[in-house]
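Let's inspect one such protein example.
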Amino acid sequence: MPSVTHDAAAPLLTDLMPWSVAPPRLGRGWPTAPDAASLKARWNALVQAEGADREALFGPTRARTTHSAVAQLPGQSSGTGRLARVSDPCPEPVRVLCGPFDEQWLIPDHRLIDAARPELWRVADDEQVFVVEQTAPPGAPGPALLASAVLPLSAGRGGRVRPLYRRPGGREPNLAPGLPEYLGSRLGHSPTPVDVLAWTLAVARPGRDGCAVPLTGDPEVWERGVESGRRTLWLMRRDGERPKLPGGRRPYVRAPLTALPRARPRPTATPLVTDPFYDRAEESLHLGEGRISPVPPEAWDFEVGGVRVLEQWFAARTGTPEPGTLEAIGPAGWPQAWTSELLELITVLALLAEPRSWEADSEPGSPITRAELRSAGVLPVPDAARRPASVLDHHEEGPEGQFALI
C-alpha cells in the first residue's frame, strides 16, 4: 500500500462517496439460496400451505407477516397482494451478493424482505457498481472495500452500501461535488468516476474515524494506482473474460464434488459433505470425497473481516438447516454450477492476494489532504449529496395493485 499521506490527513470515504445506504435486511433466510431452483421449490411449498402453516413457514417478524401490505420492489414484477392468500408463480430470482465474493440468488419480492432499501433497487442496473465498506478493525487482513455488480445484502462484517452512480444508466456519479474537477486540476486530466473508484479500491484502509482514502496529485502515482484498482474491480465484479492464474496453475477437479449437502434426503451409500479440508503441502482442497488442486495457499488463506472467504462460501452451501423449514428445501446433490463457481472463486482470490509492485515502491508524492479539499470548497459535502437523487420516472405499483404516489 503506498504511503500517499497519513490517515489523519487523508480524506474519508464518507466524504468522497457521500451517498450511502444500509444494506437490505431480509429478516428470514429462505428467500436466498445458492441455486435458483431451490427458491422456486420453496415458494411453491409456501403457497401450497394454508393458514397458520403458511405463516409459520414464512417466518413472521415485526416488519413482515403474510398479511403485510407493501409496494412492489422497484424494477421487479412481483405481486403486491397479501401473501396470506396468493397462489402466484414464484417471481424470477435475481443475483445478489450474500457475503464476501459469494453471489447467490434472491426472490425479489418486497413482501419477503423486512428492509429492502428501495433506493438501492432503483439504481441497480448494468452500469452500477456497489461498494461495501468492511467494518473489521484496522490491521485486519483482507480488503477494506468490496465492489459488486449485483446488490449486496446485509451479511458478515459488511457496512453501508455506496453506489457509484446516483441515477440509473451510469448518471450522476456518487462523488463529492467538485472532486473530479479538482483532481483534474492537480493531475492534468479529469478522471472518470470509474478511475476514482479504482484508485479508492487500491488505497482505502480502515482508520479510527472511518475508511481513509489517501489521494495524490502525482499523475504517475495516480495512473499506477488506477491500473491496480481497475484490476481489483474486474476481479471483484467477475464480469467479462474469466480470470486465469499465470503459469498454467489452473485449479482442476481431481475427484468430483458429488456428495450431498448435509441434512438433505440422500441414498445411504452417498457420503455427507464434511467441512472443507485444505492440504497445504499438496495445495489441494478436499470436500468429502471430492478434491480440487492446485489451490494456492493465498486463496485458501484469503480473509475478509477476519473470516476465510472459502470456508464461509462452503458453509453457505453445506450448512444444516432446521428440518421442516423452507431453508431445508435444497438441491438433491452437489450442482455442477457450484463447482464451476468454486474454481473461479479460487482463481479470483489467488489473483487478489498477489502483491502489486506499485504498492511497494511508490513514493508519497503530492498528497491531497482533507484540509486542501476544504480550502478548495470540495469539503464539506453539501447535505443534498448525502441523500438519494430523485430517480422516479415511472409508476411503481403500491400495495394490493394500486399505483404508488410519486
In short: The radius of gyration is 23 Å.
